[in-house]
Sequence to fold (162 residues):
Amino acid sequence: MRFKILISIIFFIAFAQKSFSQHYNVYNFQQLEPLLNQKSDTTYVINFWATWCGPCVTEMPAFNQLHNTYLKNKVRVILVSLDFGKDYQKRVKSFADKHLLKPWIVILDDPNSNEWIDKVNTNWSGALPATLIYHKNKRLFFEQSFTYEELEKEVKKVSSSH
Fold:
């Protein structure tokens, strides 16, 4: 009996620690760049955001809904957090938990934004939110906030072109 209790306690601690210590991949731009140029038969929706950005917070349900709606289709939503400073991983996790975010979240930690912003899109001023939607060579870039309907309309434009 003691053995079963001990095993249960160990399992609980291991599980609790794993879920508490969840973290997100932290990339520099060189590591992130391949995600912006995939040639597969998938449509990519890459949203650049931050937990401190009001319009980003407002639009987040649209990206979550798009992810959930197109989960079984060839549409991949990737949320690229530009949070920085002390405890940024903890802030991103707390935000994701609070908003029940399901898309893949990565954190871009590359202070040389002047070097990589133009590589995302030459028209990007660096303002947030910003979204890149692409399928192979068809690319659309937006420096704006989205509703779900607006976002889905743009995804369909890119997806239907193949």
Observations:
- The chain has a mean pLDDT of 87.
